Inverse folding.
């Protein structure tokens, strides 16, 4: 971003990558409970539903979204210890397709709003070469099928690019 340029409203500040949460300490009342080991998204990928954290020999625990206080830069603050639970299969990556069914790539990450725990954007990878030459694309125009595929609404004129 150029000097003096402002970040667009609702983007950048207050957003976290789901992958970036892995490894952060989970803290309750100044005591570290463990480290984030998995992120759980709602089936439609529009919101965070919970976090799993590893407690070492005590196993894994799940804390629901309602028990999260803050997702910070260096820690996740909670007000409940959560319940013992094994993490499910990872929600990402998922296949991304256009509305006509052609393959676009894979959804590799979810961008989570720190305050509302909603997922306004998903990160789309077109493959190694596309990632190197064009970078990954973030999109908020998506829906999820019953099979778990993500349909990305591609603007006219951008198909096949």
């Amino acid at each position: 971003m150029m000097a003096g340029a402002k970040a667009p409203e609702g983007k950048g500040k207050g957003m976290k990558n789901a992958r970036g949460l892995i490894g952060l300490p989970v803290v309750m009342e100044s005591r570290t409970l463990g480290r984030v080991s998995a992120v759980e998204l709602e089936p439609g990928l529009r919101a965070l539903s919970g976090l799993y954290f590893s407690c070492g020999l005590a196993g894994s625990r799940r804390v629901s979204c309602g028990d999260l206080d803050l997702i910070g830069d260096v820690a996740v603050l909670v007000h409940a210890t959560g319940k013992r639970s094994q993490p499910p299969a990872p929600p990402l990556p998922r296949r991304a397709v256009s509305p006509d069914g052609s393959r676009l790539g894979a959804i590799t990450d979810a961008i989570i709003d720190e305050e509302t725990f909603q997922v306004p954007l998903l990160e789309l990878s077109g493959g190694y070469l596309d990632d190197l030459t064009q970078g990954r694309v973030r999109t908020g125009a998506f829906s999820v099928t019953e099979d778990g595929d993500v349909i990305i609404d591609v603007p006219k004129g951008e198909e096949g690019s």
